[in-house]
Specification:
Helices cover about 65% and strands about 0% of the residues. The chain is mainly α and about 150 residues long. The chain has one domain. α3 packs antiparallel against α4. The mean pLDDT is about 85.
């Protein structure tokens, strides 16, 4: 008996309809939440976010403890989004995996991040998708060095 057959047999024996509906509900809620969050964040970005001259300070005039707490929270959220994006990028799993990974990367802090962001967003398909989304919500397109608006 093959591995796939054993998995199918186990699912048939151990899965109830309630469990199936619960899993489907969680799956749909996760996809919708991801799409809403990614869309919201991409529309909130300033048009020059991917320009080298865009400032990157987080809460520059706040108390140092608040800045550190915000910095930690931002990186934890970024890591979580990268992980969710990787799952969504698996073939057969619906969702905006690449865009979710991009949002997570934008929140994380690591050396070379700005160049990686520009390379990812500079992919023609991703760049067009982001600007189409922004256009749909009445936002101007993102500006990349060497890319037409």
């Amino acid at each position: 008996m093959g591995m796939l057959q054993r998995v199918i047999d186990w699912l048939i024996e151990n899965l109830s309809w309630g469990g199936v509906f619960f899993a489907a509900g969680v799956f749909l809620a996760t996809i919708l939440g991801s799409l809403l969050m990614v869309s919201f964040l991409l529309c909130k970005l300033p048009t020059d976010y991917f320009q080298p001259s865009h400032p990157r300070a987080l809460l520059p005039e706040s108390h140092p403890v608040l800045r550190v707490a915000a910095h930690i929270a931002k990186n934890v959220l970024g890591a979580a989004l990268v992980l969710v994006g990787i799952i969504l990028a698996v073939p057969g799993v619906p969702g905006q995996g690449t865009l979710t990974i991009l949002i997570g990367i934008m929140l994380l802090d690591f050396p070379g991040k700005r160049e990686l962001e520009r390379r990812v967003v500079g992919q023609p398909r991703i760049y067009r998708a982001i600007n189409a989304l922004r256009r749909r919500f009445g936002k101007p397109p993102l500006v990349l060095a060497g890319k037409p608006e």
